[in-house]
Design a protein that fits this description.
This protein is of the alpha/beta class. The chain is built from 18 helices and 27 strands. Helix 5 (about 110-145) runs antiparallel to helix 6 and helix 11 packs antiparallel against helix 12.
Length: about 625
C-alpha cells in the first residue's frame, strides 16, 4: 500500500496553485488541486485527504466557509486545515479561523521552506494516525469475527457514513443519496429545508422530487440519468426548485455517480447549494450599474446643456460662468452620493453653495429654515437655482457691495416647500429687459420640472425671489427590461411640414435640444416634461415628427409614443440609460443615447429644403 498522503490545494488563482505544487512536489506526496470550494468538496467526497491548504479569499464561498463545511462532516473532523492569506489578518480573523478548525496560518508571500516544513509535519502526523487507525481496524475486524452483532452494527455504520454528506449552516446546503434502480432517496435536514418540505410529511423519491424541480431543469437531469456522463464520474449544474409554497429557489446541484457495466447511472450522491441570495445580489448589482450609467448620462446631458446655453461677452467670463454652474451641479452630486442617491439635506446644500460668498468679518448671507430632505432631482435643480441667484447677487446685486446682504429662508407649508431670497443694501438694479440664462433656467426648472411657482420681484432696494415647490415622494420606475440598446433599421419616412414635438423632463436638456432643433430649421413644440401634458399635446398639436425622452420623471413615455405612432408620425426615442431596450411594440423605432449631439439629431431628423418644408426621419 502506498505510503503517500493526499494534500488538497484550494485557490481560485491557477498561478498560486502552480507555485504551491512546485514548492511541495519534493515531499513526494499526492497533490490534488481545486480552483473553487465546490471543486474542493468533490475531491473530498472521492478521496481521503490528509491536509487541506485553503486560500482565505475566494469567490462564492471563502476559506472560512469552506473550513466550516469540511468540519461539519465526521470524516474530516481531524483533517489538518492550513489557511493561506495574502491579506493582513487581525486577531479576530485568526480566532475565527481557529474556530472554523484551522490548525495553522501561512502568510503571503509564502516562504517555501516554512510551507514544506508545516506540510511535512502534518503529513507525518497523518501517516502515524493512519497506521494507528489501521491497527485499530485490524483489532475491530478480529473482534467482529467473534461477535456477529458488532459486525452487523459496524456494517450499518459504514453504510450510514456513505450516505451522509456535508450541509451548510442555515439550510443553504443539503446532502442527498439516490438509488436509481429503486428510486429511493435519502436526504439530510438541509435538503428538506432547501426544498421547503417537512421530513415527517414528505417521502423523498425520484418520483416525488420531480414535481419540485422546474420542468426545463428536470428534463436536463433526466437526460444525464439516461445517457450517463461518459468517462466522468461527477457533474454540476444549476437547477430551479419550485417549493410547495410557491417560492422558487436557484440551486447548484453537484453529484458523484456510479454506473453499470452498460453505462447506465445506478447510484448518485451529492450536495445541493442554495444560491438564490447570491443571484438576487447579482441582479441588484446589475440594476445598480444600470442606474449609475443612467444618472451619469443624464448628468453629462445637463453639463452639455450648460455649455451650449451659457452666453458671455468674453471667453474669460464664459469659462467662469460654465465653471460655476458645473461646480453647483457637482456639489449636489457629492451630497447625493453620500446618501447613496436617496436625497440631500437642504441646509447642507445651501451651506455648500454659499460657502464661496461668505465673509469672515460679517455674516453677509443668512440662511435659516427647518430640516428638509430633498429628492435627488429636486436637489440638483435647487443647486443650480441657488448658484444663479448667488452669482447674480455677486455681480450686480447685494453681494457686489460690502454694505449688501442676502437673507434666504424656507419653510414647510401645506402646499409644499416655500423658499424666499431677499437682497438688501445693494445697488438699485432695474428689472432686466430680457431673460438671461439664469432667469430662464430658474423659471423653467421650478415651474416645469418641479411643478412649482417662481416669482422675481425687482424692487429698488434689491431683488426678492419667491418659489414654492411640492414635496411629493415619487416611486422611481426604471425603463423596460435590460438589453442592448437598439438602433433598428427602417426605411426613410418623409412627411410634409417642419413642426416637431419635443418631450424631455430635464429642463436644461430640453432647452438645449430645442435650440439644436431650431438651428436645424424645425418649429419646436415643447419641451413637455410631464406625461399628461405630453399626451395632451400629442393629441392636440399639429406636428410632423417627434423626439421622445423614454423616462419622464419615473414614468415611461410609451402612452405618448402610442398616440404618435397611431397618427403615423415618425419619431425617435432618447434615453439616459446605457443598456435598455424600448418596449417590444416599438422595437423598430431608433433609440438615441444621452448626451445628444447636434450632428446626431441631424443624422436622424433632416429638414428637406426642396419644395415644401419636409422633415425626414433617417436611420443610418
Amino acid at each position: 500500500m502506498s505510503n503517500t498522503v493526499n494534500v488538497l490545494l484550494v485557490d481560485d488563482q491557477p498561478g498560486k496553485l502552480l507555485a504551491y505544487e512546485v514548492i511541495l512536489k519534493d515531499l513526494g506526496e499526492n497533490l490534488l488541486k481545486a480552483a473553487s470550494a465546490r471543486e474542493a468538496l468533490e475531491h473530498l467526497l472521492k478521496h481521503d485527504v490528509a491536509i487541506v491548504l485553503i486560500d482565505v479569499c475566494m469567490p462564492e464561498l471563502d476559506g472560512f466557509q469552506l473550513a466550516a463545511m469540511i468540519r461539519e462532516h465526521p470524516r474530516f473532523q481531524q483533517t489538518a486545515l492550513i489557511f493561506i492569506s495574502a491579506i493582513h489578518l487581525t486577531d479576530m480573523d485568526r480566532l475565527r479561523g481557529y474556530e472554523m478548525g484551522a490548525v495553522d496560518y501561512v502568510p503571503v508571500p509564502v516562504v517555501p521552506e516554512v510551507l514544506r516544513a508545516k506540510v511535512k509535519v502534518f503529513a507525518e502526523l497523518y501517516r502515524k494516525t493512519r497506521e494507528l487507525e489501521n491497527l485499530n481496524h485490524e483489532l475491530e475486524r478480529r473482534v467482529s469475527e467473534r461477535t456477529a452483532e458488532l459486525e452487523a452494527s459496524n456494517a450499518r455504520l459504514i453504510e450510514s457514513e456513505r450516505r451522509r454528506s456535508v450541509a451548510l449552516a442555515a439550510g443553504r446546503m443539503g446532502s442527498w443519496d439516490c438509488d436509481v434502480s429503486t428510486g429511493e432517496c435519502t436526504w439530510d435536514a438541509g435538503q428538506y429545508r432547501i426544498f421547503g418540505v417537512e421530513p415527517n410529511g414528505f417521502h423523498a423519491s425520484i418520483e416525488t422530487v420531480q414535481s419540485l424541480i422546474h420542468p426545463e431543469d428536470l428534463q436536463r437531469l433526466m437526460a444525464i440519468a439516461k445517457e450517463g456522463l461518459g468517462d466522468k464520474q461527477t457533474f454540476q449544474t444549476e437547477i430551479r426548485i419550485l417549493r410547495p409554497d410557491g417560492q422558487m429557489r436557484w440551486c447548484i446541484c453537484a453529484a458523484a455517480i456510479s454506473v453499470s457495466p452498460q453505462g447506465r447511472v445506478i447510484h448518485a450522491s451529492g450536495v445541493t447549494i442554495d444560491i438564490t441570495d447570491m443571484r438576487q445580489a447579482e441582479e441588484r448589482r446589475t440594476l445598480l450599474v444600470r442606474e449609475v450609467d443612467h444618472r451619469a448620462r443624464n448628468a453629462l446631458a445637463v453639463v452639455q446643456s450648460i455649455v451650449r446655453l451659457t452666453k458671455a461677452k468674453t471667453i474669460e467670463s464664459y469659462i467662469a460662468a460654465v465653471d460655476g454652474r458645473i461646480r453647483a451641479l457637482s456639489t449636489a452630486h457629492v451630497l447625493l452620493s453620500e446618501s447613496r442617491w436617496e436625497g440631500a439635506d437642504l441646509s447642507r446644500l445651501v451651506e455648500e453653495e454659499f460657502a464661496p460668498y461668505r465673509s469672515t468679518e460679517s455674516e453677509r448671507i443668512v440662511a435659516a429654515g427647518p430640516a428638509v430632505f430633498l429628492q435627488p432631482s429636486t436637489a440638483q435643480i435647487l443647486a443650480l437655482v441657488l448658484h444663479e441667484l448667488a452669482t447674480n447677487a455677486a455681480k450686480y446685486g447685494a453681494l457686489s457691495m460690502t454694505s449688501g446682504s442676502v437673507r434666504l429662508t424656507w419653510r414647510l407649508a401645506p402646499n409644499g416647500l416655500m423658499l424666499q431670497w431677499e437682497e438688501v443694501g445693494g445697488p438699485a438694479v432695474p428689472a432686466p429687459v430680457s431673460k438671461g440664462y439664469g432667469t430662464k433656467v430658474i423659471g423653467a426648472s421650478v415651474e416645469q420640472q418641479l411643478r412649482g411657482t417662481a416669482k422675481f420681484d425687482w424692487r429698488p432696494d434689491g431683488l426678492r425671489f419667491t418659489m414654492c415647490i411640492p414635496l411629493v415622494e415619487q416611486a422611481a420606475r426604471s425603463e423596460d427590461a435590460p438589453g442592448k440598446l437598439k438602433m433598428p433599421k427602417r426605411h426613410n419616412s418623409v412627411v410634409a411640414g417642419n413642426r416637431l414635438l419635443l418631450v424631455e423632463d430635464e429642463v436644461t436638456v430640453g432647452m438645449m435640444m430645442k435650440d439644436m432643433l431650431t438651428d436645424l430649421g424645425f418649429d419646436v413644440i415643447g419641451p413637455f416634461g410631464r406625461l399628461p401634458d405630453a399626451v395632451a399635446a400629442a393629441h392636440r398639436e399639429d406636428f410632423h415628427a417627434a423626439v421622445l425622452d423614454v423616462n419622464l420623471n419615473g414614468e415611461t413615455v410609451y402612452p405618448v409614443a402610442e398616440v404618435v405612432s397611431a397618427r403615423g408620425v415618425p419619431f425617435v426615442f432618447v434615453t439616459g440609460y446605457g443598456a435598455e431596450a424600448v418596449d417590444s411594440r416599438f422595437a423598430h423605432i431608433p433609440v438615441l443615447q444621452k448626451p445628444i449631439e447636434s450632428r446626431i439629431l441631424q443624422n436622424y431628423l433632416v429638414l428637406q429644403p426642396a419644395g415644401a418644408a419636409r422633415a425626414c426621419l433617417r436611420v443610418s
